[in-house]
């Protein structure tokens, strides 16, 4: 099948890299460990990298008026400026990366799910400082170990980072190379964003623009496509398109089995991977090289499924 380019990701250091949590702890997450085998990562820890020690006093987000501050819970000592400088520096590196996996919930790394405390010590939820900074980057794939347990969110994250890595590593030197790259993504793009598929097709077919320029434009709409949600209905549509290549060559019982399986997928009773696996099997059986090269049938290493 395919070799996969290794995505470059930013990773919270306490996710299995070193024991840098405020209490000297480390988080061992089975799925994050698996991803590490297929990606190159740079570990980051906002709190330690701005000079806080391990173990350290508990840090919190304090909301004062409309402003969020990064402070020590007990003493109120304020580290907001340091952490903002740090977050700006990390965001500035994002062009070199295909995505980030942060630790869920802490005041530095959390995405949507960090606690803040107002002047009366009432709690609410917001982004951690680094979470907010990376979330603000347009179309930058961002997740945490909690979200990666959700099948749909995990699929989208993995598709995004492996597709972006593929684009980064593909040596696109000519218009023909770009056509070839785009062809392999036809069904995946159709599932995530038919609108972007069309825009990207126009970029690929565009006339007198140097290829380098085309690739830069292509990257913008390519990464934007994967920031959208691929609905079950869109997957269903893509699945039927691909099934059209084989349906007449299958036995009636095989057709019935396929339709039953896809309907079960539509009803949420079967995972997407089961249907895709079956389509991949048909593509192999009928030696359909065009489909075997489609990233839809092979978007990331299968070891990362489930
Ligand atoms: S959550 Fe972020 S800041 Fe806190 S220990 Fe982990 S990596 Fe460091």
Mass-distribution shape: elongated
How many helices does DSSP assign? 13
What is the succession of H and E elements?
Answer: EHEHEEHEEEHEHHHHHHHHH
The profile of the biggest β sheet is: 4 strands, parallel
Main sheet: which strands, in order across?
2-1-5-8
Average pLDDT rating: 96
Question: What Rg do the Cα atoms give?
Answer: 22 Å
Terminal CA distance reads 19 Å
How would you explain this protein's 3D organization?
The chain is an alpha/beta fold and 306 residues long. It folds into three domains: 8-148, no CATH class; 170-225, no CATH class; 232-304, no CATH class. It is built from 13 helices and eight strands. The chain has helices spanning 30-36, 46-49, 80-92, 129-135, 151-169, 175-184, 186-192, 194-205, 211-225, 232-243, 252-266, 272-285, 289-292; strands spanning 8-12, 40-44, 59-64, 67-72, 99-102, 114-117, 123-126, 142-144. The strands form two sheets. Strands 2-1-5-8 form a four-stranded parallel sheet, with helices on both faces. It has a four-stranded mixed sheet with strand order 4-3-6-7. Strand 1, helix 1 and strand 2 form a beta-alpha-beta unit. Helix 7 (186-192) runs antiparallel to helix 10 (232-243). Iron/sulfur cluster binds next to helix 2.
């Amino acid at each position: 099948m395919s070799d996969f380019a290794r995505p470059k990701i930013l990773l919270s250091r306490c996710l299995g890299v070193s024991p840098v949590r405020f209490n000297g702890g480390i988080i061992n997450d089975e799925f994050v460990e698996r991803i590490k085998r297929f990606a190159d990562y740079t570990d980051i820890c906002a709190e330690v990298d701005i000079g806080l020690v391990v173990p350290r006093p508990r840090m919190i987000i304090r909301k004062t008026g409309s402003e969020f501050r990064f402070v020590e819970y007990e003493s109120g000592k304020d580290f907001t400026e340091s952490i903002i400088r740090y977050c700006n520096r990390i965001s500035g590196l994002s062009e070199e990366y295909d995505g980030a996996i942060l630790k869920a919930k802490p005041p530095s790394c959390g995405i949507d799910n960090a606690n803040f405390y107002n002047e009366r010590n009432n709690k609410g939820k917001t982004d951690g400082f680094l979470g907010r900074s990376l979330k603000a980057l347009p179309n930058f794939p961002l997740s945490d170990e909690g979200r990666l347990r959700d099948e749909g969110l995990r699929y989208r994250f993995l598709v995004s980072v492996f597709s972006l890595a593929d684009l980064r590593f593909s040596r696109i030197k000519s218009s023909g190379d770009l056509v070839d790259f785009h062809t392999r993504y036809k069904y995946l793009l159709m599932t995530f964003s038919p609108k972007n598929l069309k825009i990207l097709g126009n970029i690929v077919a565009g006339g007198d623009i140097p290829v380098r320029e085309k690739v830069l434009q292509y990257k913008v709409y390519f990464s934007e496509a994967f920031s959208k949600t691929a609905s079950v209905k869109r997957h269903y549509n893509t699945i039927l398109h691909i099934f059209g290549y084989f349906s007449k060559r299958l036995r009636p019982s095989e057709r019935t089995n396929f339709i039953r399986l896809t309907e079960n997928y539509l009803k949420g009773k079967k995972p997407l991977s089961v249907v895709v696996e079956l389509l991949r099997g048909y593509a192999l059986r009928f030696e359909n090289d065009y489909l075997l090269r489609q990233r839809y049938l092979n978007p990331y290493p299968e070891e990362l499924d489930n």
